[in-house]
Design brief:
This protein is elongated. The chain is built from 19 helices and 19 strands. Helices cover 48% and strands 15% of the residues. The chain binds adenosine-5'-triphosphate and zinc ion (ZN).
Length: 572
């Protein structure tokens, strides 16, 4: 039994996530967690909400709520939707937890002790009436380039020109509208990533089996232009983790917080501590996942994320870990994804474009989405969600192939032989061939799952469903029963066993349908079918089963057109 630590990129708190976010991080991580549990490994699967930073403050202000209250509410909303998609986190934590405060301050203190932090003086816009420094997005004014009157401090949305807040004509604070702004000097902490550059490069070079997407992004940041740069890790904001050196005051940094990208990945560790707290377990319980000096040396650590998160996980977070000089676990395998696009454009939370997780569940159960998203995961390139493709995939793979097999076999058996596994007849050549082919295909499927080749794994699973259908088609028990009922019984006995095997193999992709199949077949034995011949004869003659409710329904053309129309616009 192996010990497997899995973290999904933590979703940002400022709204409900779209299907792109889901397939780029949480969903494939869940697939991998479920698969490894099914193989009997010890799994710790961690996710959380990413709660700090300016966008959270802005979203809270828009909702008219204090930011802490807004985050607490949105965390519950996201946790509920995650349950709806059957995301099997061991813990879904919060980056604003006390655990993360303490751990983030601890890491900063260690980095300072190691000489890896430098203090930098910067010029920044200060709003006298608001009593605070303003991040670029909090400042608006007239664009010097095109005259647009709501250009932001970092960019003009009208002409796209990149701006400095000091470029704006008649700038004002978006918080209060005040024009009483001045440029003041402020102090920030920078992590000396440059001095860790060679160490980071050697570490990345040692990862020969990582996806090219992952290593190419890391290499770009290491080498492009002047190479890896030191990075500001503090901000002049109210909402965040107060800057401290361990549990000590940091002179000159009073009132400042850590930058959200500094504390967010540390939450993977803190979240595991939150898990232990929630279980009433001592620190040793989470430390054995993270500290190689406290039992984590046999842990293999996998991360899942979309491509935009890769630099922070290949460089910044490892710089924090390596720089601390403490024996924390570094990631062993980083699975990254390209982007899923939506019907001819991009998904966008800020612009409300695409299908969002709550909307998806309101029209179809989670298995339909899980299957489509995973079987079309943007692995080697970006992929695109279209309603046509979704309809075809659901109707063919789920309804025609898998659903149809389950319903045909169980209904036929009940009508001809009753609702128990029939006992007569012997297996023949055809059955032996099916069992042999299944054995090989299950090995291929497992290899894809272990390599986290999500699309290939789904293709293997589909092929496993297809060979069952082909067998039934060729064996044709509904014809054979007329001349040789005992042969037909043997065929159906095998097919009922096949349904149980399908439930086990399909569960990581479509857990609800798998549970329905297993319940209908009257078993709770989820043992992985390593011994396929044994698994295909596991249900004894006389074992009772039932006909399940229709596993999957088809999507009609009218529904497809209706949804396409309904989701074409912008979610406000
Ligand atoms: N279109 C997409 N396809 C696949 N993965 C995506 C997509 N957009 C974001 N992701 C990934 O989703 C995960 C969660 O992202 P996060 O909550 O930070 O939202 P985001 O990156 O700000 O995206 P958006 O602004 O579109 O919501 C991250 O790992 C990110 O890389
Ligand atoms: Zn402009």
């Amino acid at each position: 039994m192996a010990r497997i630590l899995i973290t999904s990129a933590i979703p940002y708190i400022n709204g409900i996530k779209h299907l792109g976010n889901l397939v780029g991080s949480q969903l494939p991580a869940d697939l991998f967690a479920r698969y490894n549990r099914a193989r009997g490994h010890e799994v710790m699967f961690i996710c959380a909400t990413d709660e700090h930073g300016t966008p959270a403050e802005l979203a809270a202000a828009k909702a008219g709520k204090p930011v802490a209250e807004y985050c607490a509410e949105m965390h519950e909303v996201q946790a509920e939707i995650a349950k709806g998609f059957r995301l099997s986190f061991d813990h879904f934590g919060r980056s604003s937890s006390q655990r993360n405060h303490a751990l983030t301050q601890h890491f900063a203190g260690r980095l300072a002790d190691a000489g890896l932090i430098r203090e930098v003086e910067e010029q920044q816009v200060y709003s006298v009436d608001d009593g605070r420094f303003l991040p670029d997005r909090y400042i608006e004014g007239t664009c010097p380039n095109c005259g647009y009157d709501s250009a932001r401090g970092d960019q003009c949305d009208n002409c796209t020109k990149q701006l400095d807040p000091t470029d704006l004509i008649n700038p004002h604070s978006t918080i209060s509208g005040s024009t009483n702004l001045e440029v003041r000097t402020t102090k920030h902490l920078y992590l000396r990533q440059r001095s860790l550059r060679d160490k980071l490069e050697a570490w990345i070079d040692s990862k020969k089996d990582w996806p090219i997407l992952t290593t190419s992004i890391a290499k770009k940041w290491l080498n492009d232009g002047d190479g890896l740069q030191d990075r500001g890790i503090t901000r002049d904001l109210h909402w965040g983790i107060p800057v401290k050196k361990g549990d000590q005051i940091w002179p000159g940094m009073e009132g400042k917080v850590f930058y959200v990208w500094f504390d967010a990945p540390i939450e993977y560790i803190a979240c595991t501590a939150e898990w232990a707290d929630a279980q009433g377990l001592p620190d040793a319980a989470w430390q054995r996942w993270w500290r190689t000096d406290m039992g984590a040396s046999d842990v293999t650590y996998y991360q899942f994320m979309g491509k935009d998160n890769v630099p922070f996980h290949t460089l910044s977070f490892p710089a924090t870990i390596l720089g601390s000089g403490e024996p924390w676990k570094l990631v062993d395998y980083l699975k990254s994804f390209n982007y899923l696009n939506y019907d001819g454009g991009q998904f966008s939370t800020s612009r409300g474009r695409g299908v969002f997780m709550d909307q998806a569940l309101s029209i179809l159960p989670s298995d339909y989405w899980r299957w489509w998203l995973l079987s079309h995961a943007p692995e080697s390139a970006d992929s695109e969600f279209t309603w046509e493709n979704f309809q075809v995939s659901v109707n063919k793979d789920l309804a025609d192939v898998l659903g149809n097999l389950v319903s045909r076999v169980t209904k036929f058996c009940v009508s001809k032989f009753g609702n128990t596994v029939p006992s007569a007849g012997e297996m023949g050549e055809q059955e032996a061939r099916l069992i042999e082919e299944l054995g090989q295909r299950i090995k291929d499927y497992a290899a894809c799952m272990e390599a986290m080749e999500v699309r290939k794994a789904s293709a293997e699973l589909r092929a496993i469903w297809v060979i069952g259908n082909e067998y039934l088609q060729a064996a044709a028990p509904w014809s054979v029963v007329k001349t040789d009922p005992e042969r037909a019984q043997a065929m159906i006995r095998l097919s009922l066993n096949l349904i149980r095997v399908y439930a086990i193999l399909s569960a990581p992709f479509i857990p609800d349908a798998a549970a329905t199949m297993m319940a209908a077949i009257g078993s709770d034995d989820w043992t992985w079918p390593d011994d396929i011949a044994g698994a295909m004869t596991a249900l004894p003659a006389g074992h009772a089963f039932s006909v399940p409710e229709n596993l999957f329904r088809k999507i009609t053309d009218e529904e497809r057109a209706d949804w396409q129309q309904k989701f074409a616009g912008i979610r406000s």
